[in-house]
Write a structure and sequence with these properties.
The complex is a heterodimer.
Chain A: H1 2-26, H2 33-37, H3 44-53, H4 60-74, H5 87-122, H6 127-141, H7 144-158, E1 171-172, E2 180-181, H8 186-219, H9 222-230, H10 234-271, H11 277-286, H12 290-318, H13 320-327
Chain B: H1 2-20, E1 25-30, H2 45-54, E2 59-61, E3 67-69, E4 72-77, E5 82-87, H3 101-113, H4 115-118, E6 124-131, E7 134-139, H5 146-150, H6 181-184, E8 192-198, E9 202-207, E10 222-227, H7 231-239, E11 245-247, H8 254-258, E12 263-278, H9 289-298, H10 301-307, E13 313-315, H11 337-346, E14 353-360, H12 367-379, E15 383-390, H13 392-400, E16 406-411, H14 418-426, H15 445-455, H16 460-477, E17 480-493
Parallel strand pairs in B: 1-10, 1-11, 14-15, 14-16
Antiparallel strand pairs in B: 2-3, 4-5, 5-7, 6-7, 8-9, 9-10, 11-17, 12-16, 12-17, 13-17
Helix pairs in contact in B: 9-11, 14-15, 15-16
Classes of the chains: A mainly alpha, B alpha+beta.
Chain lengths: 328, 516
């Protein structure tokens, strides 16, 4: 078992090294960060001096070596040119906004998709089911960007009932400035509504359809027919027998999709000026903040690698055949 | 229990009363926020705006391009090299320290160490304290733009920035990368004190109670600045009442803002010229003045201002805008397709040729659209254009390499003087002197000679003649393809008196802003 864990950790390290190497190799394509730091009057020689000081003119391997060394020995992923702070700190500061956005969206999806999906499966011919199904097609096919702008114009500009940008009032959750949350103020919650709705339009139709088809499939199985034959009440058959078994595959998919949703926050954050990680990433691309870009990609890669590794190790514990398959 | 509830309620009521009495909160949405709180670390529009809010210059520009006394109450020229400034008495810094001549000298000396500003301060010899409220500014040779430069002399609190910070670093350090005291702490004499700053999210300021300018009608007590990058989001923030002021307003939304009865659109002429440069070192044909003339005549810049800019720019035929010393009224736009074709024929390029063209796509207002229109217009006189547009982060590297035959550049004279355009854009490129740093290869020794002579001509009439002659030469030479000067556009709520506080430099003086 220990050999298995060590092997997985080694694999993870190799993956991270490759990812960071690839990013380092293409970073010149993003542009020149020094240009963004200085005024137009500054001469090319002075720009070169600044680049020298920042170590941007060193050979590729030296820069990469320095990055790896600092990362491994001090856990230091460099400094952001744009924010002028350590990259890790910048990333950690932007994470709460994105996490809260995803949480809110997940909540909307759960609350709406479960009853709607189940209803559509039970009463496929009713007008509400037909409406839901055609509406969900629309939701899937409309770009998030457009949905967001439409929502802003309706709720913020036209009716003026919800704010159009930003996070609103935030409070410091732990009192140390790391986690600024908008969940504890009315203003903050109001700011969450529109971004969460527009982000949810992408996944919500998917889950309604998934729950509906899973439920319909379950309703066709033998044991449900048996339950009916036993003369159980419809409520009991639907909610206890059928629904429970529908839920299992749905939860698995939900777990995967939540991860994907973090990637989709990008556009939503851009439209709503939401100060999360997607917004930070776009800013970094725009302003050629290579240092922050690299750090961000490495952190994201690390998260994926760690999660996958932990899952694999757990699988190894639960089902020893995985381990055996892995050793050959 | 009831009693307790009543007490709590009445306490709340009293509190809410005191908060609302006379307090005017002003919310502004801009496309970017200032990179730091150190006024001398970066020379950029955003930083200068902040400097006018938190610090104060010796003099500042008025709307009609005059000088207005601020920390200097008056000034006199002692001789060709020396200008004496008399300073305002009784001015306090945010820290409580008194403002005196030593702060002016200290700020001046610090600015000379800044990479971004030292080029601007090149003509100066030094700043000398005469007494507590008088300083002499000396230049190396006769220099006509001392007052123009005094608009950059923002006073920093010398005591506040002296000593070492908690990391043991000197507090006056100017750092582009890394922590420094001045990046996160500010003490100026300006109308607003910074109370909260989260980079790229929010900048909160409150009115400085001891602000010296008690004659100012400004009544903003809380000032909240939010960067809102997306054009559509920024406009929506204004229309929804989320902010009181946005800038810039994208031209495609002008009509939307004008049609809304809660907000208004305010425009003011700006000084940033948009041009294309033709590189004679890459294209043989560009060496022929007739070809350059043909290109200028083929470009319908009036049409571009009307169609693409929706009237939010001023059509240009020279470098400096109206109001600048070198402005020459008889230089008018020259769109004439027939003449352009004739010129091409005369030059022997009847069948045209093929060139490459590059422009940024997120630097100037509608830059990529302007480039596309230009490429089409040149097609009409047989010049086939291969256009590439790039984000600014990548564009400037290509520009440094002069990577295309025609390249777009916009320029705003940071001295608000015509000579500056020539120094950077049309003087013969010279790596040693730094002149022509952004010139793609046009070169006329007469322009160089006149520009340099104008730099030390203090007789304004003579100087004007020189600068106008330069404009005429460039016009006749068709040295570049002129488009327009960008206007500054603001969308504001009806009750915000924006008109009196804006200016051609785009430094709205929010300290003087009145909200009804």
């Amino acid at each position: 078992m220990i050999a298995f864990i060590i092997r997985r950790i080694l694999q993870a390290v190799v993956v991270m090294l490759v990812i960071s190497l690839v990013v380092f190799a293409i970073k010149k394509e993003f542009g020149d960060p020094v240009r963004d730091l200085v005024g137009e009057r500054v001469t090319p020689e002075e720009r070169q001096q600044i680049a020298d000081k920042m170590g941007l003119n060193d050979p590729f391997l030296i820069q990469y070596g320095r990055f790896v060394k600092n990362a491994v020995t001090q856990g230091d992923l460099g400094r952001s040119f744009l924010y002028n702070k350590p990259n890790l700190e910048v990333i950690v500061n932007h994470a709460p906004a994105t996490i809260e956005l995803v949480l809110g969206t997940a909540l909307i999806i759960i609350v709406l998709s479960l009853p709607l999906g189940v209803y559509c499966a039970l009463k496929p011919r009713s007008w509400l089911s037909r409406f839901t199904m055609s509406f969900s097609t629309l939701g899937v096919s409309m770009p998030v960007f457009l949905t967001a702008i439409l929502l802003i114009y309706l709720f913020a500009v036209h009716w003026r009932i919800l704010p159009s940008y930003g996070r609103g009032e935030t409070v410091d959750l732990f009192g140390n400035g790391i986690w600024m949350t908008g969940l504890l103020t009315i203003d903050g919650l109001k700011h969450l509504i529109l971004p969460c709705i527009s982000l949810s339009t992408l996944m919500l139709p998917l889950f309604i359809r998934l729950i509906r088809s899973e439920m319909m499939e379950v309703l066709e199985t033998e044991y449900i027919k048996y339950a009916w034959a036993k003369g159980l009440s419809p409520k009991r058959v639907w909610l206890v027998h059928a629904f429970k078994n529908t839920l299992l595959p749905v939860i698995t998919v939900f777990g995967v999709q939540i991860g994907i949703m973090f990637a989709f926050t990008l556009l939503t954050e851009l439209v709503f000026q939401w100060p999360g990680m997607g917004f930070m990433f776009l800013e970094a691309v725009n302003r050629a903040d290579l240092s922050l870009l690299i750090a961000y990609l490495v952190v994201v890669a690390a998260l994926f690698v760690v999660v996958n590794t932990v899952v694999d190790i757990l699988y190894g514990f639960i089902n020893p055949t995985v381990r055996i398959a892995g050793t050959k | 229990m009831k009693k307790l509830l009543l007490t709590v309620l009445s306490v709340f009521m009293v509190m809410s009363l005191t908060v609302s009495a006379g307090a005017k909160t002003f919310k502004m949405g801009l496309d970017a926020d200032p990179v730091s709180l150190d006024p001398q670390v970066q020379l950029s529009g955003g930083m200068l705006q902040l400097s006018h809010w938190v610090f104060d210059p010796l003099v500042r520009w008025t709307q009609d391009m005059e000088f207005e006394p601020r920390l200097a109450t008056s000034w006199e020229r002692l001789d060709d090299l020396t200008m004496r400034f008399h300073l305002r008495k009784g001015v306090k810094f945010h820290s409580g320290n008194d403002f005196t001549a030593k702060d002016v000298k200290w700020s001046f000396d610090r600015m000379r160490k800044s990479v971004d500003f030292k080029g601007l301060l090149e003509p100066f010899e030094g700043c000398y304290i005469v007494d507590d409220y008088t300083v002499d500014v000396k230049t190396k040779k006769a220099y006509p733009l001392v007052l123009n430069m005094a608009t950059y002399f923002f006073a920093m609190d010398s005591e506040f920035y002296t000593g070492t910070d908690e990391n043991g670093q000197p507090k006056d350090a100017i750092l582009k990368i890394g922590e420094s005291f001045a990046l996160n702490n500010a003490s100026g004499t300006g109308p607003f004190i910074v109370t909260n700053r989260q980079h790229n999210v929010i900048l909160e300021m409150k009115r400085f109670e001891d602000y010296w300018d008690t004659n100012s009608p400004g009544n903003v007590t809380e000032f909240i600045l939010s960067p809102i990058k997306e054009n559509a989001t920024r406009v929506a923030a204004l229309l929804s009442g989320g902010v009181d002021w946005i800038s810039p307003v994208p031209p495609q939304d002008f009509a939307r803002i004008q049609s809304d009865d809660k907000v208004k659109l305010v425009n003011i002429n700006g000084g940033r010229i948009i041009t294309f440069q033709m590189n004679p070192n890459r294209v043989e044909a560009f060496k022929d003045v007739r070809v350059r003339q043909a290109i200028v005549h083929a470009v319908n810049n009036e049409g571009i201002v009307k169609q693409i800019m929706k009237g939010t720019a001023t059509v240009a035929a020279q470098q400096g805008p109206e109001g600048y010393l070198g402005y020459k009224e008889n230089l008018t736009p020259r769109y004439d397709l027939e003449k352009a074709k004739a010129l091409m024929k005369e030059a022997g390029y009847e069948n045209g040729f093929e060139i490459s063209m590059m422009a940024p796509n997120n630097r100037y207002v509608n830059d990529a659209k302007i480039a596309e229109a230009t490429a089409q217009m040149l097609g009409r006189i047989g010049i086939k254009v291969n256009l590439k547009t790039l984000p600014k982060a990548q564009y400037w590297n290509e520009y440094d390499d002069r990577a295309a035959d025609m390249m777009m550049i916009g320029w705003h004279s940071d001295t608000e003087d015509s000579g500056n355009f020539s120094e950077f854009l049309t003087m013969c490129p010279n790596a040693e002197t730094g002149y022509g740093q952004y010139n793609s290869g046009y070169c006329n020794p007469k322009v160089d000679e006149l520009t340099i002579a104008a730099q030390s001509e203090t007789d304004m009439e003579k100087r004007k003649a020189m600068l106008q002659e330069i404009e005429q030469i460039l016009y006749d030479d068709a040295a570049f393809v002129p488009f327009h000067w960008q206007n500054h556009s603001y969308g504001v709520k009806k009750n915000v008196q924006a008109q009196p506080v804006i200016n051609a430099q785009n430094f709205p003086y929010i300290g003087d802003l009145v909200i009804e």
